[in-house]
Amino acid sequence: MTFATTYDDTNIFARILRGEIPCDRVMENDHVLAFRDIRPQAPVHILVIPKGRYRDAADFGANASAAEIEAFWRAVSQIAGAHGLTDRGFRIIANAGADGGQEVPHFHVHILGGKSLGAMVGK
Ligand code: 5GP
User: Fold this and answer.
1) What is the CATH number of the domain that holds 26?
2) pLDDT in tens, 40-86
3) What is the reported pTM?
4) How many domains, in total, are found in the chain?
5) How far is the CA of 67 from the centre of ligand 1 (A)?
């Protein structure tokens, strides 16, 4: 299955990946960059992004290589552990498209934790 995709190379995360804009980096490897959200919604709020040009979760799942997908989810797990979130719990959010409220059109997950996060979806 292949999703038709267009990718906007001017999006803010593409610019962070190119080093044009700074970020508060928490980890990086060949496939993945993770950094703190500029407007944190919880004591821990980290964004994890693949280095490849994927617009959203559907694009990533359909078109990323096995190595990219493995590296991405291993990074999410590693970051949750490294920030002490695995005992108390945490939340992963991946917004996609207009209904999902996605602001930046480069696939990313939010890792949120460090407090009780309440209901999953607001009214
Ligand atoms: P989305 O709604 O696309 O899932 O979330 C995008 C996230 O990116 C938002 O939580 C927003 O605060 C964050 N963000 C937007 N611009 C920047 C930036 O320049 N630097 C960082 N670190 N985060 C950003």
Assistant:
1) 3.30.428.10
2) 999 999 999 999 999 999 999 999 999 999 999 999 999 999 999 99
3) 0.96
4) 1
5) 25
Nearest atom in ligand 1 to the alpha carbon of residue 104 is 3
Note whether residue 98 is domain-resident.
yes
Q: Note whether residue 16 is domain-resident.
A: yes
Task: Identify whether 41 is part of a domain.
Answer: yes
- Asked if the structure places residue 70 within a domain, the reply is yes
Rounded to a whole number, what is the distance in angstroms from the first to the last CA of the chain? Answer: 34
Q: List the catalytic residues.
A: 108
Q: Whose CA is nearest to atom 15 of ligand 1?
A: 38
Whole domain around residue 48: which residue ranges?
A: 12-108
Q: How far apart (Å, rounded) are the C-alpha atoms in residues 64 and 57?
A: 10
Helix (H) or strand (E) holding 107: none
Ligand 1 atom nearest to CA at 35: 22
- Ligand 1 environment, Cβ below 6 A: 12, 21, 23, 35-39, 47, 95, 101-104
